[in-house]
Design a protein that fits this description.
34% of the residues lie in helices and 25% in strands. It starts with a strand and ends with a helix. The protein is an alpha/beta fold. The mean pLDDT is 94.
Length: 230
Amino acid sequence: MRVSVILPAAGLGTRMSKTAKKQFLQLDGVPILIHTLRRFASVASVGEIIIACRAEDMEDVHAMLSGAPIEKPVRLVEGGDSRQESVEHALATVGEDVELVAVHDAVRPFVAVALIEKVIAEAAESGAAILGIVPVDTVKQVHLARIQTTISRDRLVLAQTPQVFHTGLLKQAFLKAREDGFIGTDESSLVERLDTVEVRVVPGSDRNIKITKPTDLDLARHFLAEESGS
């Protein structure tokens, strides 16, 4: 089984309120992007990693890679104006011999290798799988700042990445989304529209955080210190 990993890294990181883009911010002197790459480089079934980044960032990413070599082939492709466009550009370069494609947020550097392997194994069997966790907070549906109803958490999960799919299935989902003018917030939302496969959920981890805000960086430093200590 051969897996290609796509890391969309063309975001501007506007919620971080810093001059550097969030995927290029550093943890312990190492860019977040490199921390993330190292996780996937440790997975035996991963054959290549594709980074979708902005054209103006390619030189910087090449410099990062040369300064911290990754033990898997890494390719760069030009990303788009949205996450969906960036993943679509990368997906178009995936070879026909690749059985599974995993898409992962470039700024989720703490995903456990064991979880990556579990969600890949589930997708290999079922065709589509994501990581997800059950919300711990009460969820309200609102309109104009007024509560409409309280939503039961029994049927809810918070989607994480990686999200893994059979290559042909994911390409079909992107093609249909383009034809319909549909924009999704993750890859699963595109695949769900096909009605040809059920997307399975593999229990994720609350440590698999997406670093989007300054407070997330504080938590990330804490996690990294714990891992370094252990």
